[in-house]
Amino acid sequence: MSADGCGGLPPIGCLPIQITARFNNPFDRKCLEDQNSDSQAYNQKLEKLLTTLQGTLPGTRIVYVDVYETVIDMVNNPQKYGFTETNRGCCGTGFEEVAGLCNSITPTCGLASQFLFWDCIPSE
User: Fold this and answer.
1) Of the residues 19, 72, 78, 100, which has the fewest C-beta atoms closer than 10 A?
2) pLDDT tens digits for 59-104?
3) CA–CA gap between residue 124 and residue 112 (Å, rounded)
4) Cα 46 to the center of its chain, rounded Å
5) 79 lies in a domain?
6) What distance in Å separates the CA atoms of residue 92 and residue 47, rounded to the nearest whole number?
C-alpha cells in the first residue's frame, strides 16, 4: 500500500507578510487571529475530506500532515526551537521581501538560525 501526504495550511495570520499588511507599526507585530481561525477551519474540512476520499480509493493511504500545530508551536514557544524572531523574515527588512528580492545584494539578519522565517512569505 502506498501513502500520499497532503499538508494543511500553516497559521496564515502569523506569516510576516500578513502581519505587515495589517499593522503599520513595525514594533506592534502579532499574529492575526481571524486569519489563523480561517486556517484552522480549512484544515478541519480538508482532514474530513481526505478521510472521505480515502474510503473511495482502496489500496491507497492518504495521510493528512498537520503543519498548523507545528508552526504555531514554534511561534508561541520560539525558545524551544532556538528562535528569537518569529514575526518577520531574515531577508531584508523581514516585512516585505520575498523570493527574488532575497539575493546576494539584499542584507540579511546576522543569525538566520534564530529566525523562524527566511522571507516574508515562506513556502514549504
Assistant:
1) 100
2) 888 999 999 999 999 999 999 999 999 999 999 888 888 888 888 8
3) 17
4) 17
5) yes
6) 36
Domain count, the chain: 1
Q: In this structure, are residues 9 and 85 in contact, taking their beta carbons and an 8 Å threshold?
A: no
* Range of the structural domain that residue 111 is part of: 2-117
Cα end-to-end distance, the chain, whole Å:
26
Amino acid 4: pLDDT: 80
Residue linked to cell 520575498: 98
Q: Let me know if residue 122 belongs to a domain.
A: no
What is the C-alpha separation between 62 and 51, in angstroms, rounded?
A: 8
| pTM: predicted TM-score of the whole model, two decimal places | 0.85
Q: Closest by alpha carbon to 7, among 65, 47, 74?
A: 65
Is 10 a member of any domain?
yes
